[in-house]
Amino acid sequence: MKGKHRLRSLFGGFVVLVITALVVSQVWASIFDNDGKPLTTLSPRGQYAQTIQNLVSPVFIIAGVILVLVMGAVLYIAFRFRERPDEDEIPAQLHGNTVLEIGWTLAPAAILLVVAVLTVATIADLEAREPDAMKVQVEGQQWWWAFRYDLNDDGVYDDPENDLITATELVIPEDTVVEIYTTGNDVIHSYWIPELNGKKDAVPGMRNFWKIQADEPGVYRGQCTEFCGLSHANMRMLVRALPRAEYNAWLANQLEPAVEPEEGSLAAEGKDVYLNQLCSSCHLIRGVNDEKVADPESGVESLLVSGIAPDLTHFSSRGTFAGSIFNSHYPDKPGATPEEVAACRAGENVAQNCGDPEDEALPGNPANPAYNVDLEDWLRDPTVMKPMAADDGRGMPNLGLGEDQIDALVAYLNSLK
Amino acid sequence: MALTEAEPLALPSGEPAAANDSPLGVFTRPRTATGWRSWISTVDHKKIGILYGATAIFFLIVGGLEALLIRAQLWAPRSTLLSAENYNEVFTMHGTTMVFLVVMPIGAAFANYLIPLQIGARDVAFPRMNALSYWCFLAGGIFLNSSWLLGGGADGGWFMYAPNNGVQFSPTHGIDFWVLGLIMTGIASTVGSINLIVTVLNMRAPGMTLMKMPIFTWMTLVTQFLLVFALPVITVALFLLMFDRLFDANFFDVSQGGSPLLWEHLFWIFGHPEVYLMILPSFGLVSDMLPVFSRKPIFGYPFIVFSGVAIGFMGWGVWAHHMFVSGIGPVSVTVFSLTTMFIAVPTGVKILNWTATMWGGRLRFDTPMLFSIGLITMFTIGGLSGVSHAIAPADTQQTDTYYIVAHFHYVLFGGAFFGFMGGFYFYWPKVFGYRLNESLGKWNFWVMLLGFNLTFGPMHILGLQGMSRRIYTYDAGYGFELWNKIATIGAFTLATSVAMFIFNIFWSKKKAKDLPPPGPDPWDARTIEWMIQSPPPAYNYEPIPTITHVDDFWYRKYGETEDGRLVRIAKTEDLVQAGDATDVHLPSPSYWPLVIAIGLPFLGYGLIYSLWLALLGGLVIIVGIYGWLLEPPDDPERAHGHDHEPEELPTGDREIEPGAEPLPTRDKEVETVG
């Protein structure tokens, strides 16, 4: 009887142990496994993120040790000095020990002094200007990002002759330092690509220096981190780091005006829709609606469009749209073989060979075929796709387009390579 | 401080006081001591303390429900329980409510109730101002929350950054309510803090020098100084924003040359001392509770006191660590990074001194002790994560992620609120004359500890894995699902523990009829508030005790034998004041503080909707102020029949040796001009 009982409790103990081990290993994996966590700060993929990681890792370890020591001390003291029923002695009324107290004032101060020195060095490192870096002005507005590449390196970002204006996705060459200057066009936003560096606020009226660098080609994601109103949650960032040659080709293409659709094609109809259905009063497509008009009094030339919406000149060269939350192209399938990648690019059996375009964690790849479902929904009524305040001029209003118009527009947008 | 006045101030000498007994012909000076009228006219610091506490617990429920809504929304990716608009309102109001209507007023509740008791005074220096402080807080709280019924709460976050707080980006009236409501609670805190500073500095019992004050009184004194200096800053910011929103000013309009960083600086110059003024009262409570349950004095009284004072000073030099990524420049970032790191030193000193207080003691684990130990351990976690974002480069990754949410909840919930919970259990028998049930209290503690860690522990991981703050939704596939689910389960566990506490209040009250009353000193406590009856009589002390030690009451109970052993030398019953004084004269109640406070919301609604309403509110306030001024400071019918010759009153400024001749105690009057 007793042995049976003992066996049972032994078994019970074993089960508890196994469950505990499972839970602990799961928790451990969930904390330290960076797969499937595109926003994690714990997996640097560029030199600046690595610099931060190198500084903070030992601090986390020291903090962990201090935490264990304090917790352990408190629990030990609580156990050792607990009231026991058999004693009624009043403990000695000890009022303090000056040496001890000065000691534990100075000890943490000494640890912090070391951390402080390392911190100052790292701040200097992260804030240092790089003489040969390329420069991009990153502009946040409700709720998407615009980018101005300073091609002639003159530090001026509003001459269309020498600058390149894009939206939604920041394309950079691999293994190159890119200085970014953040600013806000309405409220404060914050630009953050955790795998490449910390964040920097995009403040209206200011140009804040920051820099990023990606060791490898790839896609790096981010999320706006300064509360910027209604759709703050739907304001994402995407950085595409390309091999140098691909980047150069991308840049050359971007500098061209928009592709003119073939006459009589569906895309040409789409262009008419674009021009006649209010799209062109906010969006800009270079070569289509970028005519400038001189102010009759001052003579200053300015664009007719308001420019409060993303530039669409090369819309189809991007994989995502609307603050990078929807896919306009199929994403790559995670862990795809080279054959599958090639098949996806060629548009063969996309359901099999490409990634799921509705998987929110997979960003569309412009090299893959266009994915139109979200884009069509967006044109049908953007306000149900993403909370916006279009009535106040913030975000895209519902234009009440017909299905024919939507099909034509999608064809036109997809032609804008 | 004119504590005694021969004649009412407002009257010309010689005129009979009765002539002005009914100022403006509206009210006679109220004198009820029971019933609801006694509550709305009270100037008794104890009743005001209870009102503060009860109101704060009500708002705790409101803020807690908002928190549950947040957690329910984040249970699953792309949840549609709340719209983006509603979510933004809910998290803004959750933060605002918890800071301004829960943690600060609970601190004020303890301060109001305990400070006069701990320093041996009969009331605060300005009793009517004390009432005004409470009513303004209530008016502000109601006004702020009335926005829910009038078009939705504020939606800019509790930090309300410009220019997102402008009319252009938040066209509803939510932020108007927020601005005006916070100005009202700001009046409450300013009035209260001046009152308590004067009280502590002037009204201590004979012999109670500053370095003999209980630590709660010390920490609250520091807190009140922080309030006095921090509130003007936020008030300026609020006024600028009010002008921007209501009168088309351009302080934060960038196109007109305004600066968004101006708001950030103003907000955080207030906002960081704010953090310390939320946590220090709780530190004080724990510093008073740990010695009681360890049966040892606090380890290193001067270190505990001066580290609190140091935090109070250093707290002014760290605000821009909230702005490391806002573009303040590398020099500012470096400076504030360093100051922030070193404010960890005095905080660490407190942790170690508390631990050392327990060392060598004989520890009783009653509920207040459990919460105190909970504070030490949980606050340590919050403190250490705080150091990790004092490192500015690390903060560029951590700021505005859930890592920060985890950090400040470990500080403000695991720190401030655990201390307050301990304080509730500790002082409940003193305040209400019955004990909260101990077993339920222990359950309450463990469930709260579990729920708290389940809610906020995973947020460290979520933040480091990149989950941004203040997002109403997140996508699947970013690794956020599991920890959000755990956090939501934790939040509901936490809510259960708060419900247990509230249940305990009513249940224990019901059960208390069959139990012996707890008596004046249920915990074998150390400070003088435990040598008077529970609940304390309206006049607190009679006679005012003369203080010779820190922990004076303990030294009245215990002494050393010849061979150095500590023994009980007196029974509590013999030391306790009988509480049967008949001749003590107390300040008379007044309705005028309430009248003034009633005018404030009208002023607020008027600014938003129609200036005529503001005119009405303004008139009510002016009438209230005149009524207050013309009200005789005393009810002549209750004249006390002895002269008020000026006499040298002993105050706490004089050190009194143990065993010295007892000094003449204060005159029985505590009539004040407040």
Q: What is shown here, in short?
A:
Chain A has 417 residues and is an alpha+beta fold. Chain A has eleven helices and 14 strands.
Could you characterize what this model shows?
The complex is a heterodimer of chains A (417) and B (674). Chain A is α+β, with helices and mostly antiparallel strands and 417 residues long. In chain A, 38% of the residues lie in helices and 16% in strands. Chain A has two domains: 172 residues, Immunoglobulin-like (Sandwich), CATH 2.60.40.420; 150 residues, Cytochrome Bc1 Complex, Chain D, domain 2 (Orthogonal Bundle), CATH 1.10.760. Chain A is built from eleven helices and 14 strands. In chain A, the strands form five sheets. A five-stranded mixed sheet of chain A has the order 3-2-1-5-8. Chain A has a three-stranded mixed sheet with strand order 4-10-9. Chain B contains 19 helices and two strands. The N terminus and C terminus of chain B are likely disordered. Chain B is mostly helical and 674 residues long. A two-stranded antiparallel ribbon of chain B has the order 1-2. Chain B has two domains: 484 residues, Cytochrome c oxidase-like, subunit I domain (Cytochrome C Oxidase, Chain A, Up-down Bundle); 32 residues, no CATH class. The termini of chain B are close together. Classes of the chains: A alpha+beta (417), B mainly alpha (674). Chains A and B meet through helix 2, helix 3 and strand 7 of A and helix 3, helix 7, helix 8, helix 9 and helix 10 of B.
